[in-house]
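[job 0412] stage=complex_fold ligand=pyridoxal-5'-phosphate status=START
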Amino acid sequence: MFRDITPAPPDAILGLTEAWKNDPNPSKINLGAGVFKDAKGRTPILESVKDAEAHILSTASTKSYMPIAGAPEYRRLVQEMILGADHPILAANRAQTAHTPGGTAALRVGADFLKKFASNAAVWVSSPTWANHKGVFQAAGFAVKEYPYYDPVSKGLALDKMLAALDSVPAGDIVLLHACCHNPTGVDLTAGQWAEVATLAARRGWMPFLDFAYQGYGDGLQEDRAGLLALASACPELLVASSFSKNFGLYQDRTGALTLIAADAAQAAAAFSHVEIAVRVNYSNPPAHGGLIVSTILSDPARRAKWEGELTAMREHIARTRRTFVDALAHHGVPGDFEFIARQKGMFSFSGLTDPQVRYLREKKSIYIVGGGRINVAGITPGNLEYLCCSIREALEASSG
Ligand SMILES: Cc1ncc(COP(=O)(O)O)c(C=O)c1O
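[job 0412] stage=complex_fold status=DONE, emitting structure tokens
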């Protein structure tokens, strides 16, 4: 059976990190994978997480199985985090949450659930989108279509084209939206634009599926809810995939959640019983550790305040790095207006570098950037800034000459 199998292509993002690890050039820079890095280029464990882990270690008494949907406390805390503790949807029991292994599994479990009841629907993703979105929904059996999102000329949102496309999405189809810190462009919707999208969703009758992988990385935990709150007030039904990989730094602990919102409590409970089946056949029940960390932090005011401080520091570090990068590009004589990089939100920036320039940087300079020109701003440090800017100038000169 295996004799004639040819190798699959390496993963567009994680494959890049592997290539970077194997590169002997001491000046090499990894601007690929979406992982927070501090000024020294490290991805540290948050102090609040270490403290929660110490507490868990000293108090844990069992490694028995988790419930299919995860621990009740975690499920409640996730709902309060994404919607706000006093949101009427929570009081009405219209939300149900499953603890999933990361945001990826939240997307996949949501996709499997939707496939059961919307087998002929298409899933619409932004153009461009996170490299894994198409794969996840295709693996669940969906046809994936694209709606316009990014305008390469203004380096901002292609709002009119996006709204026109979403206005023609058939009722019952599924539209995947990035709640904040759009990956890969860093271009987000304003509150007013979210309201327009939410009105459209309600009028057209398509189902919003919100990917909330970066809550707290945009403008703040509360501010980043704007899209979800607009959709939740306009639409009776939606799905939300949360990831705690970035905002708690729990990348390897695979911690996330799928939240389903329905028109009333009875519909939410019935629909959620099928989400639980999707979990059961995929991985049976979630890994406990990451969820325990999140609950230990969110349920204790002092730990929570410490974590919020650390999250704010990560967000502000990235915003500062954006500014420093734009200024350094100008200082090193890189031609062009890069001010848009300072305006973008979250970890990523659509740099405007073309695929040949990305290739040049990788082959000649050992600078690893995802195809399409997405850079992880957090990978830029005081130690690599000058080499990066000079290399970008060379890449631009090489491609124009
Ligand atoms: C937009 C988006 N969605 C989902 C994920 C998946 O997150 P996780 O690592 O928690 O599975 C990522 C991770 O990079 C992402 O950028």
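The chain has two domains: 14-44+311-400, 65-299.
[job 0412] exit 0
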